[in-house]
Hints:
By secondary structure, the chain is mostly beta strands. It has one helix at residues 5-12, and strands spanning 24-25, 29-32, 35-48, 51-66, 72-73, 80-82, 87-89, 92-94, 104-105, 110-119, 127-130, 139-142.
Amino acid sequence: MLFTAGALVGACDSTRPTTTVSPAAIGQIARDGTFDFTITQVNSSRTFGALHAKGVYVIASLTVKNVGVDPEVFDPSAQVLKDSARRYSASFMDPPYLGDIGNSVDAGLQVNVKLAFDVPPGAKPTQIVLHESRSSEGIPVDLMQSLSRSPSPPRG
C-alpha cells in the first residue's frame, strides 16, 4: 500500500484535544480554544477593591485575547486556582463586565482583567487553569514564583 505525504499527515492529525498539556509560566501565552491568556502578575491581599476576603484573595492579573473569528464569552467562574489539595473558582473579576454584551470579547480584541480567588490563609497556590469555557480542557499556568507581597524590612 502506498501513502502520499498528505494522506499520512492527515491520518496522524487528530481533532481530539490532548489530555496532557505542558503548563505555561507567568508571562507566557497559554491558549485554550480561541483565547490566548497571559498571566502578567499574581499577588495576594485581604481586599479586592472594597471587598474583604473570608481568607486571603489571590489576585491574578491577565490578558485575554480572542484569536478566533467570532465573539466569545469569557467566563470568570470557569477559571480555577489550584493548591496541592484543593481547587478554587474565581470569586470576582475587575472589571466586572467586558464589552457591551455580558463578558463577550470580540474577535481579535484583547482585554485586561484581574481575577480574585478567595482562599484560606496559608494556602500555597501552585497553578491557575485557564478555560475558554466551562467545558474546555483548560491550560495550566504554573505559579512557580512566590506570591508578591510587601517587601520585608531589611534585618540588621
